[in-house]
Amino acid sequence: MPTTDFASGEKCWARENGSLYPCTIRKSVSKNSEIRYFIHYTGWNVRWDKWVQTCDLLKDTPQTKELVKMVEKRKKEIGKKKKGEVGREEVKEGEEKGNEAKEETPDAIGLQKERAAKRQKLHQKRNNLTPPSLLDPFVALNPSPTDTPPSTPLPLPYILKKELVDDWMNVNGGENHSPENSKTVKLPCSKTVEDILNDFMTSRTSDLEEWNSFIVGLTLYFNKSLPLLLLYPLERSKHPTTEPSKTYGRTHLLRLFLKLPYLLKSTGSVGEGEVKVLIGRAGEVVRWLSRIEDAEVEYV
């Protein structure tokens, strides 16, 4: 077994989006001769806790702290430079708007639309907004936007939302939406929904009878919902005849959690109080999922 470079409880620094953040090692695991660490960012909510590799971490030394200062100084310099560029773009944008007011020919209207698209991209860049295309998995899997949102939502931690976005990108052919690059989850999954929920039950130490009833109901919900609501069009032709909970895995379970508040809301036989209890239990499963490290989902 390889030797760990960082001990549990040790304070260190983690690389994240070009910056260095202070963190604490919670635990470590060894898989395929590689050490991975579960870290907590100092001063941040636990929902940002994550697994990282050794190469993402730096020891808490005077040299590292000096490096942190250099990185922050460099980021401020880059920020000032970008601010100046955005200011010049705003001036140009104002000139274009003034010219558009005088243009009403068909060609000019097309040009206006093109410039409007550029302004939208500039707005997204300036305000660090996520491009609409990256929100598609949530639009695609949620009911119609005209539906009333459920009174009891089920928040998904960032790490699980990212998994859903990555899943959507694979199924829809990447950023360019290229059909030849489309992939679906390899079935049967190495760890099925049934396996995952059994592992969750093993982690419970109290209220076992109530939890067992909830997991049985959740499994039934998954098996009934998957063929109708949890598959993208590309996946429907590949849907096997076996029981879904014995074939599909973590990714499709996350899709169910995304839709669960809407499904419970549409079930007239379930009262609002009972919905809150069920969503509360589902939230515990979701948080548990965000903390464990399962085998990587394989796409083919």
TrEMBL record:
Residues 84-105 have a biased composition (Basic and acidic residues). Pfam families: MRG (PF05712), Tudor-knot (PF11717). Residues 75-111, 116-135 are annotated as: Disordered. PROSITE patterns: MRG (PS51640). Residues 8-57 form the Tudor-knot domain. Residues 149-291 form the MRG domain. It comes from the Eukaryota. Keywords: Chromatin regulator, Nucleus, Transcription, Transcription regulation. One of its GO terms (biological process) is regulation of DNA-templated transcription. It is found in: Nucleus. One of its GO terms (cellular component) is nucleus. The keyword Transcription applies. This is MRG domain-containing protein. It comes from Triparma laevis f. longispina.
